Amino acid sequence: MKINNNDLINTFIKNIKNREKSIAIVGLGYVGLPLALTFAENKFSVIGIDIDQKKISKLNSKESYLRHINSVRISKVIESQKLIPTSDFSFIESCIAIILCVPTPLNKNREPDLGYIKTTFNSLKKFLKKGQLLSLESTTYPGTTEEVLMPEIESLGFEIGKDFFLVFSPEREDPGNKNYTTSSIPKVIGGITPECKDMGVELYSKIIKKLVPVSSTRAAELTKLLENIHRAVNIGLVNELKILADKMDIDLYEVIDAASTKPFGFTPYYPGPGLGGHCIPIDPFYLTWKAREYDMNTKFIELAGEINTSMPNYVLEKIFNALNERSKSIKGSKILVLGLSYKKNIDDIRESPSLVIIDNLLKKGAFVKYNDPYILKLPKVRKFNLKIESAEITEDILNSFDCVLLLTDHDIFPYEIIRKNSKLIIDTRGRFTSSSKIVRA
């Protein structure tokens, strides 16, 4: 008997409502793991798929590999068998929905690298069946879902919106943010067809409090980029103003605090040593790349990118000048870096400007150690393999360094001890009050 469209839609809705079939989350990183836990905690059976065997082993041992995810949460869903971690893509055959949470980096030419999406889809496509939904959560340029995934799915004989449902629903995770969880952050959903969108809403409504349906996958893709471009451009603005305010001998942090008292029309953004993380330094360039297809240069976005990318060089110049004023060369100077992660109170070093700055200091002949309470051993990453040791923060150790460089202002740092016992502090986060031995950078 031929199954018609209404039968497939009704079956999908029934399966989601009654939790009769599993949900597959592919990619168990900063986005996928919280999502998998949230579905499991809402009584769904979840197949968590990742090709990293270390992650799978840790999850099966009921251990977390992300600092902001408590091992107790993992233990509960593993013990109840609501989450099954695996590297076996064949489990997808028994799932009603598949959600892709894989990386979308840039290549060396700052062009979109969809390799993870394409490789992952090739691994799972032979297990797809009629009546399933595929959701892409990875940040990407407008048109990816429609131009990359849709033709692949149609080549398998499916008719999207009829017997297979395809949506784009961008992740909005903010590691370390205690005010918002996966469930409480409103979720944008766009479908290839209205039926796809409706099925996406049906799926995510079971775990997310507020849904924001939009007219297409392209609109959803651009929504995510706008969110991050908004931040990148405004951070670029205050980073540029930081340099100008320094030349004018004005405390920009005081200015920002004063401007923030305006009850309308102003949102505070703060400068830093550069941009980091998996979103803001990368996502704007997805749009600038796509814009060239329409013979358009995104000048605002590219200018902000140039400013933000240049900030590590500004910090390095401030270090060189501060040491020089104290009759010291950068070569041979002992520098203690405080904070490696791209923002405070997390253990994420992806695209962190700290790594760029440390790499340059080492190349200039500086002797560098670091302290980051969330990163006890510096791992090898895509661009860097920095072999530096961690140092404790004590009065004697602080006093033994020529310069203490604050790159990430973790709340846990003992700032008063650091202030009292350091010979020179380069502060890139505005954490210290200016003095003869504190240089803002």
Give an account of the 3D structure.
This protein has 441 residues and is α/β, with parallel strands linked by helices. It folds into 2 domains: 5-215, NAD(P)-binding Rossmann-like Domain (Rossmann fold); 311-440, Rossmann fold (3-Layer(aba) Sandwich). The chain has helices spanning 5-18, 32-41, 53-60, 71-79, 115-124, 144-154, 194-204, 217-247, 252-259, 283-291, 299-325, 353-363, 395-400, 415-421, and strands at 22-26, 46-49, 83-86, 95-100, 133-136, 165-168, 187-191, 211-213, 334-338, 367-371, 403-406, 425-427, 438-440. Strands 3-2-1-4-5-6-7-8 form an 8-stranded mixed sheet, sandwiched between helices. Strands 10-9-11-12-13 form a 5-stranded parallel sheet, covered by helices on one side. It is elongated, with a radius of gyration of 24 Å. The mean pLDDT is 94.
Main attributes?
441 residues, alpha/beta, Rossmann fold, 2 domains, 39% helix
Short description:
This protein is of the alpha/beta class and 441 residues long. It contains 14 helices and 13 strands.
Radius of gyration: 24 Å
What does the overall shape look like?
elongated
So, CATH architecture of the largest domain?
Answer: 3-Layer(aba) Sandwich
In CATH, the topology of the largest domain is named Rossmann fold
Largest sheet, if any? 8 strands, mixed
Report the β-strand fraction as a percent range.
5-15%
